[in-house]
Amino acid sequence: MADKTAILSVGIDVGTSTTQVVFSKLQMDNAGGYFSVPRVAIVDKEVVYKSEVYMTPLKTDVLIDTDARDIVAAEFRKAGYRPEDTDSGAVIITGESARKENSDAVLKSLSDFAGDFVVSAAGPDMESLIAGKGSGAWQYSMDHHCRVANLDIGGGTTNVVLFEDGETLARGCLDIGGRLICMNPQGIITKVSPAAAVMAQAAGVSVSVGDRCDELKLTAVTRQMAAALNAYLGVGTKDIDAILRQIKTPGSSDFPVPEKVQAVFFSGGVADLIYHESADTWAYGDIGVLLGRAIRESRLFTDFQKMEPGETIRATVVGAGTYTTTISGSTITYSDDIFPLKNIPVIKLDEELQEACFAGETEPVIRRIQWVLGQNDEEHFILAMPGKRNPGYMEMKRAAASIRQIMDRVQPPGEPILLVIESDIAKAMGQMIRQQPDLKRQVVAIDSIHVEDGEYVDMGKPMMNGMVIPVVVKTLIFG
């Protein structure tokens, strides 16, 4: 008989223009039988509450107002939940908000308020992935076995992700958004971002703070932005690589020009203005309407199959609330009182170093770990490895002894041994490590989770009667 449980997940997004909160129910199911190894997975996701869309409160051009926390607290009350009710989720600061001077403090404040295992995360690559999942592009790529791009166009940035059959092929981000140029109700320009200035120069027009809005000039700027997005996806002009380099969002990955993109999704606040034109050009006090129009008139709208997502402006916050948490395998070992664990860096062994570990050769692994730790002054970390299929007893015994010796060399006494193994041997490995003589460390060994070197992992308290652990894998954290 299946063993089912539901967890409450919250997504909180503080973006360049807007701040939103979403609550979701994630349904977990154990599909294993009475006489087989449990197989627990998240089988259903349902958004149960969406907040209104708030303008992100800013104290100055470089500071987020602490009213953002008041917004979140009010939405918890409206939804009928308390912070302690949440089991998982994410707080993310996105777009230009991620560059504000106090963004890390605001992020920590919101994360601390929202629940023990509500993680804080930042970075354009992660936002690209979350938005692509929240919009439905990721699911579409799996359902139709095709290559799909999602462009999440907000106030300050455009996050782009490329999926193929559920796999992430590329992520990137450009400083293109609807609030890069703003104006007051009198039609006077009050803001021109550096990226907008680059675009204006490329378009051959002059746009400065204090100027009166000139629709022809601003249309030229937004058409240049649309041309840059076209080039990013491999259509249109090929001679703007220098411009793309200038407007690449700091911290984002390189985005190789893709081939054979079959469908394109648009999400983010500007997406609504792409799919549904506004009659009032200056309705939002920015160039969002013009940017939506320019994209709709570009090759992005004619060269690809256009898909309208289930979520546009809420794609990122829905993705944060429903797609950030995964579930470990059920063949795991852990110490009961160690969770939750947050922001633990990953050091992943390649196949060669893993073979050395299983052969009892510790020195190559120790050198690798010591080099990594020397780069970032960390003392605690997760040791990750691909694992083996059906390793022999003696191999496992040698590997367990090796891991214990390695950790004794590279970690201070008392630090826990944290392992993530992709194949389902974590429970046996963890138990063998625990059996090492005079071991005075806690041990956590989980499997069925894919991580990469340099990522960060959060682990929540065990669920489903201790069978599984909720896990979040992050590419970047603040601080």
Automatic annotation (TrEMBL):
Cited InterPro entries: ATPase_NBD (IPR043129), EutA (IPR009377), FtsA/MreB (IPR050696)
Cited Pfam families: EutA
Residue stretches in coiled coil: none
PANTHER family documented for this protein: CELL DIVISION PROTEIN FTSA-RELATED (PTHR32432), ETHANOLAMINE AMMONIA-LYASE REACTIVASE EUTA (PTHR32432:SF13)
Protein name: Ethanolamine utilization protein EutA
Organism of this sequence: Coprococcus catus
